[in-house]
Amino acid sequence: MSMLTLHEVGRDFGGLPAVDSLSMAAEAGKITGLIGPNGAGKTTVVNMIAGLLKLSRGRVELDGQDVSTMEAQHLSHMGVSRTFQNIRLIKEASVLENVLAGFHRHETTSTLSSLLGLPSAFRERRALLRRSMDLLERFDMADLADWPAASLSYGHQRRIEMMRALATEPRLLLLDEPVAGMNDAEAYSLAEIFRDVAAQGVAILLIEHNMRFVRRLCDHVCVLASGRLISQGAAETVVNDPRVIEAYLGS
């Protein structure tokens, strides 16, 4: 069974469909690409999956459970995590504090315990700090742990957002243009991390305009144009589909 399944999903704005009759799936342990020209409806799809936009029709299932009407907070607790096109960080906080924030849903001690400095709260925070540092090591950013997030480059801020998303320990990870603005070397170093994450059984849905990155990374690719699915399959097959060449590549 797929981790994520969309059944005839649609979303209208002002009576016009931004996404229409979309059926697709993302499997656990696999990286599924979602590509298409600007305005194709890709981010709208991710926002519906994440509970930030209500569906106009259709159904979204997570591991076989209908989650079509669930709010973003509930979906987060079920293991849905995402990054955004526009980076959303706590700019004045340190890199480590931003990543630590991602572990919030795993906290078990009460706010009162933390305020009183009880041993249980201290032990939990120490454990979460250790796990945060493990992520920083994984993304080769441990030396920047105490730096304010706002002081770092765009590429480093992208990495912080991805670490924070992984800190939630997702079952479904939604990546909205994660390597935008990065060079190939930076992008391919992240590709290895994404492969490792998928190998742990996480389903990854990737929106990306970098076709070299998509072809190198994705196990399966779905193509949207004007809110409709026009092609899907292996990356090499999809990019050579005449409908994709016309709609996405513009030739």
TrEMBL record:
Pfam family, one: BCA_ABC_TP_C
A molecular function GO annotation: ATP hydrolysis activity
InterPro entries, per database record: AAA+_ATPase, ABC_AA/LPS_Transport, ABC_transporter-like_ATP-bd, BCA_ABC_TP_C, P-loop_NTPase
Keywords: ATP-binding, Nucleotide-binding, Transport
UniProt KW ATP-binding keyword: yes
GO cellular component: plasma membrane
SMART domains, per database record: AAA
Superkingdom classification of source: Bacteria
Ranges for domain ABC transporter: 4-251
Name of the protein this chain belongs to: ABC transporter ATP-binding protein
